[in-house]
Amino acid sequence: MTVCEPRPTAPRIEPIDVETADGELAELLAGSLTHDGRPLNIFGVLGHHPKLLKRFNLLGGLILNRGLLPARERELVILRVGANARAEYEFGQHTIIGADAGLTESEIAALADTEDAGSGHTWSTDDHALIALADDLCADDCVHDDTWAALAQRWGDAELVELLIVAGFYRMVSGLLNSAGVQLDPGVPGWPTT
What pLDDT, in 10s, does the model give residues 132-142? Predict the structure, then answer.
């Protein structure tokens, strides 16, 4: 079993000060998700590399706004990936998005329990397959045969590709957030307390 190191408790990379940004960077930050008129901390950190921020927003925007997957199922995968990565920022942001997509407080709390995602919750066969996809990829970088067979009962090839990209993208994001020490934005929950 891999022993996980503690996550940084302070920023390793401070978010860009939106007041000092100009030109394309100011436009990119203005077009990113904001809280109280300020870009979310993740976008402020990515702002140190404007070209990357621009492309990150394109792929992230496609996943969140124009993907083939229903929002609830997409968020189930993202939350489980965030939990497996122990990425509190990721889990907190997507707790809000997941609730808006129809996940219940009980489901979100169960997803945070990486030892037993069923704790206090009974998942449908389809939901269980999505949780297994996230767990398989996070543990072994490959979806196992039994998980794939369960997923293929519901999803076509295009959706299966998207599921893999969603999980992979948010694994990458979780690694960035953890390693850069990106701090929760004001009003965003951390880990569930229930």
Answer: 999 999 999 99
CB-count exposure of residue 22 (10 Å: 0-12, 13-18, 19+): exposed
Q: Is 146 exposed, middle or buried (0-12, 13-18, 19+ CB in 10 A)?
A: exposed
Which amino acid is residue 46, in one-letter code? L
Task: Count the Cβ atoms, other than its own, within 10 Å of residue 100.
Answer: 12
How many Å apart are CA 155 and CA 152, to the nearest integer? 5
One-letter amino acid of 10: A
**Nearest-CA neighbor of 164 among 93, 72, 67, 87?**
67
**Domain 71-180, what fold?**
AhpD-like (1.20.1290)
**pTM for this prediction:** 0.94
146-191 pLDDT, tens digit each: 999 999 999 999 999 999 999 999 999 999 999 999 999 999 999 9
